[in-house]
Amino acid sequence: MMPGSELPPTLFANAQLVDPVAGTITQGGVLVENGLIADLGPHLSASAVRGGTKIEDCRGLVIIPGLVDLRAFIGEPGEEHRETFRSASEAAAAGGVTTIVMQPNTSPVIDDPAVVDFVLRRARDTGLVNIHPAAALTKGTAGKEMTEFGLLKAAGAVAVTDGDKPVRNAQVMRRALSYAGMIGIPVIHHVEDLDLAGEGVMNEGEFATRLGLPGVPHAAETIMLERDIRLVKLTGGRYHAGLISCRESLDVLRRAKEEGLPVTAGVSINHLTLNETDIGGYRTFLKLSPPLRSEEERLALVEAVASGLIDVIVSDHNPQDVEQKRLPFAEAAPGAIGLETMLSAGLRLVNAGLISLPRLIRAMSSGPASVLGLKAGTLAKGAPADLAILDLDEPWFVDAPQLRSLSKNTPFDEAKLTGRVKMTMVAGKIVHSYR
Amino acid sequence: MSNASFIFPHPHLLGIEGLSRPDIEGLLALAEEEIVLNRQIEKKKSSLRGRTMINLFFENSTRTQASFELAGKRLGADVMNMSVSNSSVKKGETLIDTAITLNAMRPDLIIVRHHAAGAVHLLARKVDCSVINAGDGAHEHPTQALLDALTIRRNKGTIEGLTVAICGDIAHSRVARSNIICLQALGARVRICGPITLLPKGVERYGVEVFTDMRKALKGADIVMMLRLQRERMNGAFVPSMQEYFHYYGLDREKLALAKPDALVMHPGPMNRGVEIASDVADGAQSLIREQVEMGVAVRMAVLEALARRLPNG
After folding, report:
1. I want to staple B238 with a disulfide (CB 3.0 to 4.6 A). Which of A95, A102, B125, B233 is the partner?
2. Is residue A14 in a domain?
3. Strand partners, B55
4. pLDDT class of A107 with cuts at 50, 70, 90
């Protein structure tokens, strides 16, 4: 099977099917016809389908719904040297991601319905996977004036967020949450108090002190999350905390959920699989926002994904060119690419016995889809055939130059990973195939 | 061990962290020889003859730069000074481009001071010559720690078992970090003291005793090491005012009296007289501040010589 080829009716037989909603893995087949999942389940074997159906034997392989990534930065428009829709979707497809929610921090910023329209057309014409824009929450992501939530939503924006920028002014946030609630569009927020974060460039504590780098305290995140939750209480707006990195924030999140507030939260794959000590001798590819925390925080985050307290795992894919990274640590741009490695890195947690495979997949597929109300992220009869086929046992070695992203700032360079995507399909079309 | 056979096992001097006690003691022993030389009329050696040494200072420093320059010249090296004000960095050239450009001129040693922690490590990875860290952000300033150790050792005979109180702006101080590691490696008990806003998180993990009360920190100390507090940090950002800072953390005769009677006072300079240290203490009988400057040249000569021995054809 070659990428891009139109498939005849095909049965992927003898596979392990992961149902992220039910939390189960069952032996069975998936029948793909006309770009849709025509049928699936244990009853689908080679003898159960009509003649002329192509049979692909998937013995030993796992079929998962295509992953939904709520947080990826793409350089297009404006910084195409970092990443284009094409390169991002090639990276996504290779990583089993079939739906990307792109952040509005482009040039120009996606804060106008015409830009939403442009992005959707470009993505349709040049992309390989589903790309949905999140529009800016405030004009120019300046944190001052609301954008046109209604018109942006009508144009196709799936959420409003200032991406990697927090909204400092609580009054602006209050009104945005109220108005977004009325329009019915979710607000995603980067929970960081910029004053407390100050000049900080890594987790505050012993390691930052030893490296002589200014630190970011946990409270910079937790205080902002607490503020936001009070505003959600006040307004009833649908709210998603983009990235959580520490235990104190988990406590705040738990209380909000127990109160029944419309609050969800995400975590980046980096914060689940790496910690502050990975920065070692000032490795700028591990400079992230929020910063990587301690091992105890990492384990607490993993547990929160396993328990369902955290709803979403994102790649936080943020391509940065060499010039933004080959700098002293404090001066380097934050961010790491992740579309292509998110799933394999996540499998480390499964292989370590910290989380079940369906739970991991849920946080990368049906979980994020339901946060934004996207029709994606499940294997279901009649749904678009967005899926990925994995070999859970295949070992591979991450070689940064080989990754498909135009930028090579991966924190997993030279990492040994186990489990790899063999094939990815979007609406029945093969967008990635690896033999 | 004779000094002539001392082999420093590292290509660069990027920090005290990673040095063993024999590494440090070897450098100090070599420095002792340089002191003898520096006190003669004929102060020149030829151990760096033919070598090119570049002082690359991205941050202004009259004292450290002069100290390195003199050290290089006394060893016979050709010394070139480059400071940020007349370099292409101001025109947008990156640190790495600067490193690659200088490297192409085939220097043997580059001395680097930079305002960003880790910048010297980054540069060292891109050049073929030996690199000496002359201060990177709030990270390390290894030659300062070595010269402080040498000064203490010459006055106290040994560092083993001494109690050293390092006082002031620990959070922003590379001198403090290098000194903590160096003095602990040589067997001292290190105390640190400063207002809570100037103590970095997790500093106790170095195994130091942490104080916010300077009177308690100085009690029974053999050495009182004061740090410079930058004026912009005294205007309410980290401490309320210069006056309040001096009241609680300035070293005056009254506070010094709490230390051992034979306690000695140090300061890496440049001093803010009347802010972190009273003039009469700085100039008093217990002060080693001028001797530190002399030891600075000797220690830098020792480091240059030790690294040059490792260079090709060294």
Report:
1. B233
2. yes
3. B81, B111
4. very high
